[in-house]
């Protein structure tokens, strides 16, 4: 065979192997609404006098599997039909090369008989002659039907890939009064379905692959057209945005390549440049409107209180998933208590920044809290203060022991307006918010300040917050997302901050606040010297949302240490498309600067290599030149989803051999073998199921770091000597033996020989 003929044969084969497009119809509604659409599809019932004929595509392009799904759709529709000789009659055709009558409309008079017959239909195969089947119906009508004396509905289930013309016979059928639904199956050609369907087409084109949605859509259209009222009066048909997406294979010009062509004049082969094409997948989206029926559900009345989640069970039942503090109570009804002895001062922002609405929300929160938590036997005493320009103690702690009296006193607290001087208010609350009595030891109750605000302070808060915490007061913050960072700085920990998104969400924070009031911080190891580097996986497999979860977790961990050049130094390395030192060990000498820098760390994306990042830490981060301190314990915490860890075991061991501890926090449902090798032989691996669960493992991480901070260190690991000098241990200290040309305690200075 001549070479050019062989090339032509190969090209034709390659192009014929292009896969078909992959469409998807999707209704863009909430998960709750999808559930309601599904429930409504099971509630629908059509009992009118109507003839319904199913026309099922049994051609080879549909295939046996999709033909079975077409049958399943038809059976599901029959579940909602009052089938009898006087009411709904059902018949079925199967079409491929020729139309085949499976059973006429007057064959069966019960739902069970019709469903059993559809179930026994056998796939025939052949060409897709949709037009031929439509012409058969035009000429002979609906077999066994009642002609035009009752509404006639034709439900065509096909992939829309007819081998003949369909528009004209479909138009003629519709002109005779037949209502046509075009229901796609497998990978339908949407243009042909639109040509088949009645007007309005958006209400008559469906997708059989989504059975409950398609059934709902069909009966919603019948209800709108008054052919049959298929739902209860409380249900309603609504328009929802939806989209039909198609994954197309598109040919793109990729360049020219040498090829050979035959000559017309003589039997010869000529060299030439021929175009070369590649194939690319492209999503094409077609916005549409889908009409679906939803019915009132048991959860519409929001029966679950205090942040409980309502889960429908059947048509009328529901179950409340309650927060921990309300577990076991009907509808998550309040049943909270404080088991510790506590003096609690609510500090409400009454400044112009919060506004009157925000102040009223804060008062409502306090009222609902005391009603849910306090009782006759409660060991808690509550007070309320407001602030703007200055602090005003509106309800002194312990003044009201009776809850109704306390609630009435809250109603009389006025909104004041003025500047937001939160720092001044914190200092005054520490000095006079808890009265003048001074009790010590076990006789003194746990003292807590709960700050409620929606606006940032206009004065400095870090110093007053440290002053307040130094008085052994627990600071808790409740506020909007806009003030989260400031509240974390004031309280000293993200664990002590509760953020809400709307007024109802604010009330949902009551159980969480109740749980925090009696908790006491463990001492940890704040005064232990430590050089600590966090290494974060910011590759594309992690994603920006999970990276934000990691940032929040690292900020929370950093708050557990005394950050300054003499105690704890923290560095951060991120890796993805590249490895980058976000900041070195000696770059952020204060906690405030450290927290800001963690929030500003970049998300890189791309493909990450944990091994490359560990070598980067070895060479460019954990060195004396970059801020590491001789004689101080050193640790690296790796946070990763596991991808890109295959090459990390050897670099991790290199760090460990150099006196640097390495802990791996592997995130994901299953730990990869690469992560297990990276963790090494010691117990240096924490498995986290999801990024949102990182916070639950903070205590374990801090405990591990505290243990590493107390381990004995080798002063020469990592070596404090620069410029390839050798570290020698000597009498509990060390000295550096420098190479020729270098001098100084750490071989940091170049030695210059003087010329004579």
Automatic annotation (TrEMBL):
GO cellular component assignments: basement membrane; extracellular space
Subunit structure: Forms monomers and multimers.
Location in the cell: Secreted
Disulfides per UniProt: 738-747
Position of the signal peptide: 1-23
GO biological processes: calcium-independent cell-matrix adhesion
Molecular function, one GO term: identical protein binding
SMART domains with a match to the protein in the record: EGF, EGF_CA, VWA
Protein's recorded name: von Willebrand factor A domain-containing protein 2
Domain EGF-like: 296-333, 712-748
Taxonomic lineage of the native organism: Eukaryota, Metazoa, Chordata, Craniata, Vertebrata
Species this protein is from: Theropithecus gelada (Gelada baboon)
Residue span, VWFA domain: 51-222, 343-517, 531-705
PROSITE patterns assigned to the protein according to its UniProt record, in alphabetical order: EGF_1, EGF_2, EGF_3, VWFA
Swiss-Prot/TrEMBL keywords: Disulfide bond, EGF-like domain, Repeat, Secreted, Signal
Main localization, broad class: secreted
Keyword match Signal: yes
InterPro entries: ECM_Assembly_Org (IPR050525), EGF (IPR000742), EGF-like_Ca-bd_dom (IPR001881), VWF_A (IPR002035), vWFA_dom_sf (IPR036465)
Superkingdom of origin organism: Eukaryota
């Amino acid at each position: 065979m001549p070479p050019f003929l062989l090339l032509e044969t190969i090209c034709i084969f390659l192009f014929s192997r292009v896969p078909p497009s992959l469409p998807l119809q999707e209704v863009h509604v909430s998960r709750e609404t999808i559930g309601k659409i599904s429930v409504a599809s099971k509630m629908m019932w059509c009992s009118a006098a109507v003839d319904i004929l199913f026309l099922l595509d049994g051609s080879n392009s549909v295939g046996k599997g999709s033909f079975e799904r077409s049958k399943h759709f038809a059976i599901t529709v029959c579940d909602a039909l009052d089938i009898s000789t006087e009411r709904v009659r059902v018949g079925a055709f199967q079409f491929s090369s020729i139309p085949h009558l499976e059973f006429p409309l007057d064959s069966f008079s019960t739902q069970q008989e019709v469903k059993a017959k559809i179930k026994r239909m056998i796939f025939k195969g052949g060409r897709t002659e949709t037009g031929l089947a439509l012409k058969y119906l035009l000429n002979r009508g609906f077999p066994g039907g009642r002609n035009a004396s009752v509404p006639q509905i034709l439900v065509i289930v096909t992939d829309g890939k007819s081998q003949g013309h369909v528009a004209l016979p479909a138009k003629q059928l519709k002109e005779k009064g037949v209502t046509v639904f075009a229901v796609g199956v497998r990978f339908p050609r949407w243009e042909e379905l639109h040509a088949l369907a009645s007007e309005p087409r958006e209400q008559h084109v469906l997708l059989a692959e989504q059975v409950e949605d398609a059934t709902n859509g069909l009966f919603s259209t019948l209800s709108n057209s008054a052919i049959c009222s298929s739902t209860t009066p409380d249900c309603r048909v609504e328009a929802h945005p939806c989209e039909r997406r198609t994954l197309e294979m598109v040919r793109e010009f990729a360049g020219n390549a040498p090829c050979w062509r035959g000559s017309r004049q003589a039997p010869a082969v000529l060299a030439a440049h021929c175009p070369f094409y590649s194939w690319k997948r492209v999503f094409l989206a077609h916005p549409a409107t889908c009409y679906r029926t939803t019915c009132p559900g048991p959860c519409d009345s929001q029966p679950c209180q205090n942040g409980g989640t309502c889960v429908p069970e059947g048509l009328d039942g529901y179950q409340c998933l309650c927060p921990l503090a309300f577990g076991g109570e009907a509808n998550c009804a309040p049943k909270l208590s404080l088991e510790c002895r506590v003096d609690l001062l609510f500090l409400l922002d009454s400044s112009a920044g919060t506004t009157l609405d925000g102040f009223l929300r804060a008062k409502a929160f306090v009222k609902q809290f005391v009603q849910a938590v306090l009782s006759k036997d409660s060991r808690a005493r509550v007070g309320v203060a407001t602030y703007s320009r200055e602090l005003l103690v509106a309800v002194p702690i312990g003044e009201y022991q009776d809850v109704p009296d306390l609630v009435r006193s809250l109603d009389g607290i006025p909104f004041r307006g003025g500047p937001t001087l939160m720092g001044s208010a914190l200092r005054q609350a520490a000095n006079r918010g808890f009265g003048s009595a001074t009790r010590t030891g076990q006789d003194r109750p746990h003292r807590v300040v709960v700050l409620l605000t929606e606006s940032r302070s206009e004065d400095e808060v870090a110093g007053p917050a440290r002053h307040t915490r130094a008085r052994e007061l627990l600071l808790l913050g409740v506020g909007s997302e806009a003030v989260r960072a400031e509240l974390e700085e004031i309280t000293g920990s993200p664990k002590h901050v509760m953020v809400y998104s709307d007024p109802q969400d604010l009330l949902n924070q009551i159980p969480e606040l109740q749980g925090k009031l009696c908790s006491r911080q463990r001492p940890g190891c704040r005064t232990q010297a430590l050089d600590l580097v966090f290494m974060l996986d910011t590759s594309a497999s992690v994603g920006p949302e999970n990276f934000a979860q990691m940032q929040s977790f690292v900020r929370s961990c950093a708050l557990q240490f005394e950050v300054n050049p003499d105690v704890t130094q923290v560095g951060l390395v991120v890796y993805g498309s590249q490895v980058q030192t976000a900041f070195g060990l000696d770059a952020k000498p204060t906690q405030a600067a450290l927290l800001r820098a963690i929030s500003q760390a970049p998300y890189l994306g791309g493909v990450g290599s944990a091994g490359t990042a560990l070598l980067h830490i070895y060479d460019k981060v954990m060195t004396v030149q970059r801020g590491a301190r001789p004689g101080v314990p050193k640790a690296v915490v790796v946070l990763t989803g596991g991808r890109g860890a295959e090459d990390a075991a050897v670099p991790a061991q290199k760090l460990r051999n150099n006196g640097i501890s390495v802990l791996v926090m592997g995130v994901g449902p299953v730990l990869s073998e690469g992560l297990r090798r990276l963790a090494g032989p010691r117990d240096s691996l924490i498995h986290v199921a999801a990024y949102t669960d990182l916070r639950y493992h903070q205590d374990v991480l801090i405990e591990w770091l505290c243990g590493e901070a107390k381990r004995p260190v080798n002063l020469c690991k990592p070596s404090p000597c620069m410029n390839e000098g050798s570290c020698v241990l000597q009498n509990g200290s060390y000295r550096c033996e420098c190479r020729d040309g270098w001098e100084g305690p750490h071989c940091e200075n170049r030695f210059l020989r003087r010329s004579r």
